[in-house]
Design goal:
Largest sheet: 5 strands, antiparallel
Strand content: 5-15%
Helix content: 40-55%
Strand order of the largest sheet: 2-1-5-4-3
Length: 255
C-alpha cells in the first residue's frame, strides 16, 4: 500500500464535505442472492471504513466451523494479511475468534506479537489495527480496521461499526437458514414429482411378485442400491417395461 494509494483510500472514506458520517446507513433486509456471504462482507468493510475516522482500510471474515472461510477486503494488501493469519493461525483474527472480544494492536511498530503479521502489516503501511468479533448462532464474523497512525482506532469497537457488525452477522445467519430452507424445498419438490412413478412401480412389483406395498418398495430400493441408480430411475424403468424381467433382477439380488 504505497503513499499515493494511502491518500486515495483516506480520501475515499470521507464524504464530499470532508467529514465522516456519524451513523451508518441502515439498509433494508434483502433476500439472499448468489455470491453471499461474500457480498455481505464486502458491504460491511466498505461501510465500516466510511463511518470510522482515521481508518484506511478494513477486512471481514466469517467462520462457521467448516473449512470455507469467506472474506472481503478494501485493498489487496489487506487480503494478504488475512491469508497469512488463516494459514498460520497467528494474528488478531484467530485471537479475536477464540476470545470473543476486540483485539487492539495500538502500534505495530512496537508490538512484538505475531511477528509475521506485524512485518507484513508494516510493509503495507499499516501502523495500527483493531479486530472485532461478532457472534450469531454458530457463526463468527470478524471485522478488522486498519490505520496509518498509531493509537487512532482505540474507540472503534464502541462506534458505529458495532451495529454494522451485529447486523452483518445476523444477516449471514438468516441467509444461511434461507438457503437451507430452499434446498429442503427443492428436495421435497423432487420427491413429490417422482412419487407418482414410484407408486406405480410399487404396484407393478406387487402384482409381479405377489407382495405387499412395503415389500415392493424394499425391492425397488434394493435394486437402486445394487445398481447405483436413483430410485426414481429404477421406478421409471419398471414402469416402462411393465415389470418384465423384474423376477430375474430380484432373483439376482438374492444371490
Amino acid at each position: 500500500m504505497r503513499k499515493s494509494e494511502q491518500t486515495d483510500i483516506v480520501r475515499d472514506t470521507q464524504d464530499a464535505d470532508g467529514t465522516y458520517p456519524a451513523e451508518p446507513a441502515q439498509a433494508a433486509p434483502e433476500a439472499p442472492e448468489p455470491g453471499l456471504p461474500a457480498r455481505r462482507l464486502s458491504e460491511l468493510v466498505e461501510e465500516a471504513v466510511r463511518c470510522t475516522a482515521d481508518c484506511c482500510g478494513a477486512v471481514a471474515t466469517v467462520s462457521d466451523g467448516t473449512d470455507e472461510r469467506p472474506s472481503a477486503a478494501t485493498h489487496p494488501d489487506l487480503t494478504a494479511l488475512v491469508s497469512l493469519q488463516l494459514r498460520s493461525g497467528e494474528g488478531p483474527i484467530p485471537v479475536a475468534e477464540e476470545c470473543g472480544s476486540p483485539v487492539d494492536a495500538t502500534d505495530l511498530l512496537r508490538d512484538r506479537r505475531w511477528p509475521e503479521y506485524r512485518a507484513l502489516a508494516l510493509d503495507a503501511g499499516v501502523r495500527s489495527s483493531v479486530t472485532i468479533p461478532f457472534r450469531s448462532a454458530d457463526l463468527t464474523v470478524t471485522l478488522s480496521l486498519y490505520g496509518f497512525r498509531p493509537g487512532t482506532l482505540a474507540d472503534a469497537p464502541h462506534g458505529p461499526v458495532r451495529a454494522l457488525g451485529d447486523l452483518a452477522a445476523t444477516c449471514l445467519v438468516r441467509d444461511r437458514s434461507y438457503q437451507a430452507a430452499l434446498t429442503e424445498l427443492d428436495q421435497l419438490g423432487a420427491a413429490l414429482r417422482t412419487r407418482p412413478v414410484v407408486d406405480q412401480a410399487c404396484g407393478i412389483v406387487m402384482h409381479v411378485l405377489g407382495c405387499d406395498a412395503d415389500a415392493a418398495f424394499t425391492v425397488l430400493r434394493r435394486i437402486s442400491q445394487a445398481s447405483n441408480r436413483k430410485l426414481a430411475d429404477v421406478a421409471s424403468a419398471v414402469v416402462d417395461k411393465r415389470g418384465r424381467g423384474l423376477e430375474r433382477e430380484f432373483a439376482a439380488l438374492k444371490r
